[in-house]
Amino acid sequence: MSWDFKDIKNWKTGDHPIGSIIPEPATAEQYRTGGWRSEKPIWHEDKCTHCMICWTFCPDSSIMVDDQKMYDIDYDHCKGCGICATECPKDAIDMEPEEK
Ligand code: SF4
Ligand code: SF4
């Protein structure tokens, strides 16, 4: 389907075509965004102090925590933005090309 946007500035509310429909709520977890990654965060447990700064900053809730300690990275949903590696004060996360 293609839309004709030539007159978009004059569209009224009801003139906008339907873009997408979300048939049920809370489905984000089912959508594995890890396939978007070009770089992958590698966690070095030996350097980690479990300060949770990476958990605070991760936009995809991909820092896995149990009993207030980080234990892994959720690669099904991590998009590889690198914020965790940038913010970690202990250099406990490196970014590597996804092919490795
Ligand atoms: S920011 Fe670094 S030190 Fe803190 S929990 Fe994350 S990996 Fe560990
Ligand atoms: S690379 Fe980005 S999405 Fe992945 S764990 Fe780090 S902050 Fe979260």
Could you give the count of β-strands?
4
Q: Let me know the largest β-sheet.
A: 2 strands, antiparallel
For this structure, the quaternary state is: single chain
CATH architecture of the domain at 31-97: 2-Layer Sandwich
The percent range for strand residues is 15-25%
- Rg calculated over all Cα atoms: 19 Å
Separation, N- and C-terminal Cα atoms: 39 Å
Helix-strand string: EHEEHE
Name the hetero compounds present: iron/sulfur cluster
Helix/strand structural class: alpha+beta
The CATH class of the domain at 31-97, by name, is Alpha Beta
Give the % helix: 10-25%
Task: Explain what this protein looks like in three dimensions.
- This protein is of the alpha+beta class and 100 residues long.
- The chain has a domain at 31-97: 2-Layer Sandwich (Alpha-Beta Plaits).
- It contains 2 helices and 4 strands; from the N terminus they run βαββαβ.
- The strands form 2 sheets. The chain has a two-stranded antiparallel sheet. Strands 2-3 form a two-stranded antiparallel sheet.
- The model has no long low-confidence stretch (mean pLDDT 91).
- One iron/sulfur cluster binds at residues 43, 48-54, 70, 88, 90, 92-93.
- One iron/sulfur cluster (SF4) binds next to helix 1.
